[in-house]
Write a structure and sequence with these properties.
- The chain has 330 residues and is of the alpha/beta class.
- The chain has ten helices and 13 strands.
- The strands form four sheets. Strands 3-2-1-4-5-6-11 form a seven-stranded parallel β-sheet, with helices on both faces. It has a two-stranded parallel ribbon with strand order 7-10.
- Strand 5, helix 5 and strand 6 (162-168) form a beta-alpha-beta unit.
- Helix 2 (55-64) runs parallel beside helix 4, helix 6 (190-198) crosses helix 10 and helix 8 crosses helix 10.
- The two termini are 31 Å apart.
- The model has no long low-confidence stretch (mean pLDDT 96).
- It binds uridine-5'-diphosphate-4-deoxy-4-fluoro-alpha-D-galactose.
- Uridine-5'-diphosphate-4-deoxy-4-fluoro-alpha-D-galactose is lined by residues 77, 79, 117-119, 169-170, 188-190, 193, 205-208, 219, 221, 259, 282, 285, 289.
Length: 330
């Protein structure tokens, strides 16, 4: 039996595929390579190139493989892009989930682990954020992921498809060996951008706003290492395989770092200077996002191994410096 990883050529997807293979699972990957990289996929995985929304293609994968369950990463995930092109997000994310659940139902596959997000919560009422907190997204990206969570809920009631939604906070780092890492075009995420400035590939960093109600006025985020996320997906899959009910989990480190603190941490790890300027607020950004991950630790027995901002930056820096042009360098 195989695990089907949809979106397995992306940043978090490829680390999860690699981790599953290291843990002796058989893995089938589906990816349309719109943002992912074929070189990121562990060669022991079987790869089908195609789009989730292509029902015939997807059905063919399910018919050809012996699929036990699905891990779903294939969604657009850039907050500012979603503000500019909301319908692109509804089409790929929500319609993609629609087709996937239908094809799973038709093929009697009843387990799905889903890559959800802190962005489903929006502006937090209190910190840290627990699973039962109100979900009121502040951007279309978060709205589509919330819609996808709800689709799985109703598909569970109607068809018995069990799900785990993993709501990650901000993800960083890379496989410590440096073989795979984060490679987005264009890059919009804070840590890789700060590292590009440290490396001299960009002149300076623009911090989006310093007038938020936080310790230093810049946004506060909770960073989790991509390898710890990969393990959380494995544990969530095992949880479903053991016959447990559908569930949601927040995944973070329970520690918040302001954007300026991330710059300081990068300077410390790399020994490089990071020139910066303060710009306008970025539309759609909530002020503070910090996870309460107690439930994942208790129910899934999730035990993060790389729970430090310096380790996250160190591994991301290792990838950046050995792959200055991302997968083009491989
Ligand atoms: N930021 C800057 N300058 C930049 C880039 C980012 O100041 O050049 C700031 C952002 O305004 C924000 C923080 O850095 O305050 C983090 O921004 P990212 O773009 O790295 O990450 P987001 O918080 O917007 O979103 C990420 C993921 C989402 C996920 C979310 C949950 O992209 O998928 O974290 O917190 F939902």
């Amino acid at each position: 039996m195989s695990i089907l990883v949809v979106g397995g050529a992306g940043y978090i997807g490829s680390h999860t595929v690699d981790w599953l293979i290291d843990n002796n699972y058989e893995v089938v990957v589906v990816d349309n390579l719109s943002t992912g990289h074929q070189k990121a996929i562990n060669q022991k995985a079987k790869f089908y190139e195609g789009d989730l929304r292509d029902r015939e293609f997807l059905n063919n994968v399910f018919q050809s493989e012996n699929i036990d369950g699905v891990i779903h990463f294939a969604a657009f995930s850039i907050v500012p892009e979603s503000m500019k092109s909301p319908l692109k997000y509804y089409d790929n994310n929500v319609y993609g989930m629609n087709v996937l659940l239908e094809v799973m139902h038709e093929n009697n596959v009843d387990k799905i682990v889903f890559s959800s997000t802190a962005a489903t919560f929006g502006e937090a009422k209190h910190i840290p954020i627990t699973e039962t907190d109100e979900q009121i997204p502040t951007n279309p990206y978060g709205e589509t992921k919330l819609a996808m969570e709800k689709m799985m809920h109703w598909a569970d009631l109607a068809y018995g498809i069990k799900f785990v939604a993993l709501r990650y906070f901000n993800v960083g780092g890379a496989k410590p060996t440096g073989e795979i890492g984060e490679d987005h075009h264009p890059e919009t995420h804070l840590i890789p951008i700060v590292l590009e400035v440290a490396r001299g590939q960009r002149d300076k960093l623009t911090i989006f706003g310093d007038d938020y109600d936080t310790k230093d006025g810049t946004n506060v985020r909770d960073y989790v290492h991509v390898m710890d996320l990969a393990e959380a997906h494995r544990l969530a899959f095992e949880y479903l395989q053991s016959g447990n009910e559908s569930n949601n989990f927040n995944l973070g480190s329970s520690t918040g770092f302001s954007n300026l603190e991330i710059v300081e941490a990068v300077k410390e790890v790399t020994g490089k200077d990071v020139p910066l300027e303060i710009g306008d607020r970025r539309p759609g950004d909530p002020s503070t996002l910090i996870a309460d991950s107690t439930k994942a630790k208790t129910v899934l027995n999730w035990q993060p191994q790389y729970d430090s901002i310096s380790k996250i930056i160190e591994d991301a820096w290792n990838w950046e410096t050995t792959h200055p042009n991302g997968y083009e360098d491989k």
